[in-house]
Amino acid sequence: MRIPYIVITIGLVLITGWLVSRKRELKASTHQRYRRIVDNLLIPKFGKTMLASWKRKDVKEWLAGFNCTNKRLTNVQNVIRKALADAVDSELIDDNFIVGWSYKIKEAPRLENDIDPFSREEQIAILAKCSPSMANQVQFSFWTGLRTSELVALDWADIDFVRSKIMVRKAMTSAAKGKIEDTKTASGKREVKILAPAMRALKAQKPHTFLAGDPVFRNPNTGERWTGDQQIREAWVRALKLAGVRYRYPYQTRHTYASMLLSAGEHPMWVAKQMGHADWTMISRIYGRWMPSADTDAGGKAEALFGVAEPAASKVS
Known about the structure:
CATH topology of the largest domain: hpI Integrase, Chain A
Oligomer: single chain
CATH superfamily of the largest domain: Intergrase catalytic core
Number of strands: 3
CATH class of the largest domain: Mainly Alpha
Strand content: under 5%
Structural class: mainly alpha
Number of helices: 13
Helix content: 40-55%
C-alpha cells in the first residue's frame, strides 16, 4: 500500500531516502557535492514541503532568484531529478515533474580564460626549487597530463616500462579520504604514452618509492600516498613562491601538457585520447588557440591527388 502523501516531506525523501541509498553507488566526491546541494539549498528551502504538493513552478521560481551559472543550475536540478525518479520508483508519487524540463538563464558567451599554461622557463624554475622526489612528480605531471586524482592513485604496477605506457584505471579525490575509486569518466580509463621527459622522471623516482610499495608518488613529509589535491597544493604553493613564478593551481600542469602537444602540431584526436576525453571536440573548444593555423599550402596535397584537369576551352567557330 502506498504511504499517504501527507506524511512524506521533501526532506524525508532527500535525506532518509535517495541520498542515503545512493551513497555506496556514487564516487565520494560526487556524493559530497550532492550532499552539499541537499543540506545547503534544498532542505532549507523545501525540506518541510509535502512531496505531493511540490510543483515545477516552485522550483522555477526558486531557481530564478539564483545568481550563478547554468552549470550550477543544472547540478541542482540533477539532484532534484534523481531524487524524484527514486520517489516514482518507490511509488511515493506518480510523476517526476522535472523530467524533460530544465531551467536555464541566458549567459554571455564563455571565454576559456581559465587555461593558463606554464612556459618552458617557468617549468625549469619550478623544478629547480622542488625536492628531488617532488621535482619528479611535477615533471611527470607536466608531461603526462594526468588529473591530480589520477596521479595520486598511480601505482608502480600501472607503469608498463616495456611498452612505455601508463595504464590509467583509477583515481582518488580528497573527498574519498584514502579510498581508491574509478576514473572521472569512462573514457578516463586509458593508456597514456610515456614521453621522454616523463620517462626520465619515473626512472629518477624509482630510488625514492619503487621498493617501498605501491604508490609512485608519495607525500615527502609523511612517506604515505597523497590523500588528494589539497596536500599537493600546499607543497605546490611553496615551490612556486620560491621559484618566483606567478601562482596557478596544480591542475594547470594538465593544461600545460595539452598546450605543449597542440602547439607542436600533435593530432588533436591523439591528444584527446591521451587526456581521457571521449572525442576531440572539447580539445578544440578549450585549447583551440594553441592549434597551429593552416599554412599557405593547405589543400595542395588534395589538389595534387584528386584534382582533375580543367576542360579545354571551347573553340569559337
